[in-house]
Amino acid sequence: MTAPAVDPITAEVVSRHLLSIAEEMGATLIRTSFSPNIKERADCSTALFDSRGRVIAQAQRVPVHLGSMIGAVDAIRSRFPLEDIQPGDMFVANDPYSGGGSHLPDINVIAPVFRNGEIVAYVANIAHHADVGGMVAGSEAAVCRSIFQEGLRIPPVRIMRGNKVLKDVLDIILLNSRTPDERVGDLNAQFASNHTGIRGVEALFARYGDTTDAAIDAYLEFTRRRFETAIRGVAPGTYHAEDFLDGEAEGERARIALKVTIGDGRMILDFEGSAPQLTWARNIPNQALIATVYTVAKSLLDPDVPANAGYFDAIEILAPKGSVVQPQAPAPVGCRSISCGVLGDAIAAALSQAMPEKAIAGSGPHHLAVFAGPDPRSGEYFVNYETIAGGMGARAYRDGMDAVRVHASGAANLPIEALEHAYPLRLERYALRDGSGGYGQFRGGTGVVRDYRALADGITVSLSSERQHVPALGLAGGGDGERGRFVLDPGTDEERVLKSAEADIALARNHVLSIRTPGSGAYGTLQKRDPDLLERDVREGRIPESLARPRAASAAE
Amino acid sequence: MGNAWIGIDTGGTFTDLTLANVASGSYWFHKTPTTPDDASRGILQGMRELLEIAEIDPGEIGFVCHGTTLATNAILEGKWARTGMITTAGFRDVIELARQRRPNFFNLDVPKPTPPASRDLREEVTERVAHDGSVIVPLDEEAVREAAARLKARGCTAVAICFLHSYANQAHEARAAEIVREVWPDVYLCTSSGVLAEFREYERFATTSVNASLLPVIDTYLERFERGVNDLGVEREPLIMQSNGGAVSPAAVRAMPVNTFFSGPAGGVIGAAGLGTEAGFPNVVTLDMGGTSTDVALIRDGIPGKKGARDMAGFPVRTRTLDLHTIGAGGGSLAWIDPGGLLKVGPKSAGAMPGPASYGRGGELPTVTDANMVLGRLNQSALLDGRMQVFPEKGLKAIETRLCGPLGLDAVRAAAGVVEIINVNMMGAVRVISVEQGEDPRRFALMPFGGAGPLHACDIARIIGIPHIFVPQRPGILSALGLLHADTRGDFSLTRLATAEASSLAVLQDGIAQLGEKAKAWLRTERLPAQDAVYEWAADMRYVGQNFELAAALPSDRLDEATIDGLVEQFHTAHEQAYGYRMGDRPVEIVNIRLGVGVVRPVPPPDQAKAARGTLDEALIEVRPVWYPDTDFTDTPIYRRTSLPLETSFEGPAVVEQMDATTVIPPDARVLIDRFGNLMIHISIEANPEGQS
User: Per the record, where are the segments of Basic and acidic residues compositional bias (chain A) (predicted)?
Assistant: First the structure.
């Protein structure tokens, strides 16, 4: 391809058009979608790919979607001969093992864009569907032992031909969901989003003609140079880190091993030595692995770098097949977002060695609780799926963030007032979990306490977590984060600590379940903490006076 | 009512004032430096000067409307009162937990906003109300008394009372407020059910505590402002513009300062709607481009879009506001080279100080303004009608040293690149707000205002494919002018989660009655006769199990089975229109009841040009080379806006200069000056796939 030289201005202008198209696709998807996951929590992303399947622009609203449509576009390109792909086609896929998905509820919809009879680009979007079948409502639970229990697997298949929906395929998807009406609404929104994208890309090529491709190439090249510059700012070398997922039995753990090699403007992450895949649904499939690596690298090296193949290409990922970070079918993967919190820590730990001034301590990932049972008020069966945040690790220069979703994860909480209206549950406490963040010069972010009282008979709970066995580590002498914990009836004679993963255990009427999520690690020793901050911590009840006082005493000497 | 109307818009650098004699149709305009330590000082000085210029007696003033940034600045700068909070036991951290999301997914150094009430000033008291409003645990009144005493002792001046489910039953909050006032009579206080009686506790508590923290601040300010206006000899009580585009009394703002966060930009949008309708352009996209940021809004059939929430300094403030998109780019935006070698514009800005390099105030970094100067689009000797000397060679030097070297391009190409990039950023903002509202922007006219809007509007319109550009007579002070177009408007809401069926009639009717009482009290505060008020009732509805709402209009405040059925049908239809399908057999629930109360004020007459206008040739200042994307540097006539004849037309290229703005008209454009002095520019749009869709 003889590309005309493109200057940095044209490349920037074309890139703004590309981003604008991706944003418009996102606005269309959110405006026309049905389910709250997409509408209110914006659990969706949109992207543009060039004719070779490289991401050129992405409007991601959840970091775990970063780069996550790459696999789907690749899968279509390898599955369908080029001449078989026509204008007016769209494709659908969600399978982590054959369709480039990261877990089954995330459905990709992809469309080619043509100019003069040739594919010049692809537009794609991903949306988290509230239910795609499987053994539990919501289609994700740690207890699933096989992906077949998690829901409908969709390989890359055509869902539209000649701009007409292929009803046969659609009907299979709908029959497999507990909420088929919503699925139609959300899929229609995904189609509308791609139509917006197709029109935008066609207009862009009409405006810039043959320069367009060259400008896109140039834009990726400028992005690659930008990220390489960021990598070159990091001390070259090889850095080792490891962290652990909780194992399958209490007290067990599963290693995530990582060797990061930095040099020559590139980064290689090698996960050799990581534990074999788990039988519970906490495995991290390839797309989730990629998204977490891209997210942590971007956060630590250059938060504003545009999300495209230019920077992805500067990163190489090696992961042994059959390990927790590269599971093989039919390993279950539904709860990968909790495990990705620990994976993010392993990556951050390695990079923190390479750039100590930007270092970040270990983080507390969220916990997942699914309450289900009959609601006596309506006579109907309810399912309440909630994620409860942990805390973000302290950095070398600031306290960690309290009560947030960490690394690649980002979904919001459920308001108490919405919860109590919808389900026979009452919250007795929703608070920062004092003392759960490690103490140090910079405090670890605290986790959360959320206490639920059951108001009806027959309620069961399923629980999933990480960092109940293995704490988030502090850095440079900072304290570790407190581990998470599920406690039944705290402060009563019947108090009982539950296991780190539970399936369908009973929560009898009037009994209380307390979910206490893990806090994160601190940075530096407590002795080095600014006395003013320490004084504020005590005043605000964030640190016991007994811990702060010896420090004050020794400072006076 | 007096015939002299005054609009006052306080900006970061200047305060703009407009005075209209609505009997004669004469207008006067004035600009005075903003006095940040006490904005009322600059305003009152400006009012005195303006009255002198217009030779109008203060007693003739029949209407004063003020757009204020006071609450906005206080929240952005954290200059709020020491604020305490009294809340349900077990939940003092709700305000800090927020929605458990990081504000920026990738930049880990952007923290969640710091709540106005720090943790040691958040007192928990025993009480609990359930979702249906029933009391589970009675209010511990003694605990409230003790909490109030502690907060007072610790130096708080404001208190927010925030209990769970208070939207369903406000008794506990109301009683707690009574107790606090008993023991602490001069406290500034608000309750969450009083500020925002809607469910979702974090958003309600955040809105309420932010409101509480501003109560003393706004009170002090309005006190000075009102007294000053009164001392000038003005008999009418001045009104304050709210974010919803309606003006209200100082008393209403004293209770709800959060309603003024977008007071300034709202004036511009209301003005644009007024002028557009007057000139036959009821469908308009506004482009209010200032030095550091740009606001974009969509006006349909003369009515600006609204929404129920907008973030302010990271807080989800739930009040009715005009639907404005703000992007961090304007005339003062800095141009820079990113580490990969791409040319970028914004979001950092040179601000008022040092400002663009060519202003000669010590700025050395290139800005959009400098690029416009290098390209001959801005006057190269002076701005502000010759009042402010400029130094284009300094702008050129900034572009050469900071951009040309790294880019390997000459100064003109680099400057053109800066302009091209900011224009494409603006295109993105206009397109996204249109798509979000389900509209095609090409159906709308583009109305640029603010200091920099008319400079870029034609190029932006061309990129989007908009053929009509409408440049109002005084683009730089449209916000002040728009204040004269303000009606009085209050928005009220109340959550009543209930299935939309006959069995819910009592609950809903009770909610409607409560809102009606609120509105009546508000009308009394505004001293407006109830018979002049137009009530718009609406219900936010959803399918049971959904988590977002669509609004459906209620015909009146009387509900019966038939109106409920009608409401449900209306919801199904709205849902079908918005999302393409309906679920006829699924139960529907009502979430919020809304009431908008409007009292329409007379529309001010169009600005009749005072001076006799000459010919086009007489308006010509000079001919200078000006750069355009398609024709490069082209000799261009430069006209003085105030000397242009009315009801004439001419062809581009042309540049129209006036005190407050510069309009660039490209070579292939046609310009029509209407009888009000507005410029209607028509540009030809090439057919492309966007144009055919």
Answer: 527-543
